[in-house]
Amino acid sequence: MLPLPYAIERKTNRTPWATWGLIAVNLLVYLCIIGVVPTDRREDVFRQIGFVPGDAHWYSLLTSAFVHAGFLHLVWNMLFLWLFGSLVEDALGPGLFLLLYLGGHLGAIAAHAAIANIFHTEAQSQPMVGASGAIAAVLGLSAMRFYRTKVRVFYWVLIRVGVVGIPAWVFVALFMGYNLITGVVDLAHQVAGLPADWAQGGIANWAHVGGFAFGMAGGALLRLPSEGKKDYLLEDVAARGVTAEARLSDLRALVAARPQEPLARHALAKYLLAMPRAEEAGREYMAAIGLYLRAGQRQEAVKAYEELVRTFPDCVLPPEDQLALGAAFEETDKPREALHALEKLLEAHPKSPHAELALLRTGQIHADRLRNPGLAYETFKRLLREYPASPLAAVARQKAEEIARRTSGPR
Fold first, then answer.
1. What pLDDT digit, counting tens, does each position of 261-287 carry?
2. If phi over 0 gives left and psi between -120 and 50 gives alpha, with beta otherwise, what is residue 55?
3. pLDDT at residue 320, rounded to an integer
4. Which residue among 275, 325, 358, 367 is least enclosed by CB atoms within 10 Å?
5. Are residues 57 and 48 in contact, defined by beta-carbon separation less than 8 angstroms?
6. Burial (0-12, 13-18, 19+ Cβ within 10 Å), 194
7. pLDDT at 240
8. CATH class as words, domain 333-411
9. What is the secondary structure of 242-298 as a DSSP string?
10. How far apart are CA 87 and CA 263, in angstroms?
11. Phi/psi-derived region of residue 130, left when phi > 0, alpha when psi is between -120 and 50, beta in every other case
12. Mean pLDDT of 85-102
């Protein structure tokens, strides 16, 4: 069987500059080596900048992470780094991601050197090169943070080919399980004096295991499974709404951890409304709508507001949010609902600066969206009458005069 991961079913929220940078450095080092170093001298270079457990240079602790023995070695590692590194960097940020990446490489070196020196294997005199140990740490972090996210895998079994989606933790467990079993068998061969894969220039399986263990430990310290659980709860709520699977305690914990996440507050509000806990639900709805509006998620804000007013028809948001809600209704092609939202603002907050703008928007909706110049004219006149000192008065006067010129209505 030939499994080949090629995609991960999850979008990232930021450009993975650190991941791309690591890939670029690895490619550059490889091209420099094959372009400058003659083939018959590359083994010497690997011994100089790779990590040799029995004769290591201090700088090889870093340089060994960026040297690859061949093209396939490089491509395989960069494929895994591109797929999983982007995810982990998106979750942790570039700084922490790079720190754990390099830490994973050191963990890989420690495990590889320990096994080689304790059991006096032939790996003591062989250079260890490549980013595999660091990438194994990234796999460990991915398995803990994105355990439910699926990895798209192309497979080839004899004459049968296909594509399958595998949860990240299953894919990583299978991959690392293979490395652990191979490492044990390889070590048993060497201890017994038999030919071993590593002695023949093969894979440093114990480096992979060490890097992976470092990633798992780092993920546990950073509580990545808990963060992943919050993400998946949000995704479930977005996809299926509030269900019996989402417990109130889970939603409260999610809101406490991510108070600026509108979907979390919206989910909690719907859950509380269904219990019913109307007053608390209303507060969460208003908070969610405000967060949706400030995040530019207009459709979500409109949906949440419509749910809110079905239970609380007289509810009015803070004036800035109520005004933004009117604009959201306009953008979603609901001009009459926009008028209703603006009218509620005028009733509840007549003395606020937002009321002046609400009147201007009301007049423009009547004029431009509902084609009712009479009501538009009266609205602009109302603004001039009630707010004569308003900075919007000149605009209202101009609009009223334009309507008067175009129609036979009042002048």
1. 898 899 888 888 877 778 888 899 999
2. beta
3. 92
4. 275
5. yes
6. exposed
7. 63
8. mainly alpha
9. S-TTS-HHHHHHHHHH-TT-HHHHHHHHHHHHHTT-HHHHHHHHHHHHHHHHHTT-H
10. 21
11. left
12. 96
Question: What is the predicted pLDDT for the residue at 199?
Answer: 42
Q: What is the DSSP secondary structure assignment for residue 198, as one 8-state letter? A: G
Question: Hey, which residues does 160 pair with through a beta bridge?
Answer: 157
Q: What is the pLDDT of residues 116-125, one digit of tens each?
A: 888 877 778 8
Domain covering 236-315, topology:
1.25.40
Residue 203 scores a pLDDT above 80: no
Tell me the C-alpha distance between 262 and 56, whole Å: 53
- Average pLDDT over all residues of the chain: 87
Q: Which residues pair with 161 in a beta bridge?
A: 156
CB 302 within 8 A of CB 329: yes
Domain residue limits, the chain: 4-222, 236-315, 333-411
Name the nearest CA neighbour of 42 among 79, 76, 73, 80.
Answer: 73
* pLDDT beyond 50 at 308: yes
Question: How many other CB atoms are found less than 10 A from the CB of residue 316?
Answer: 17
| Domain 4-222 identical in fold to domain 333-411 | no
* Residue recorded with tokens 């019996």: 244
Domain 4-222 annotated CATH 1.20.1540.10: yes
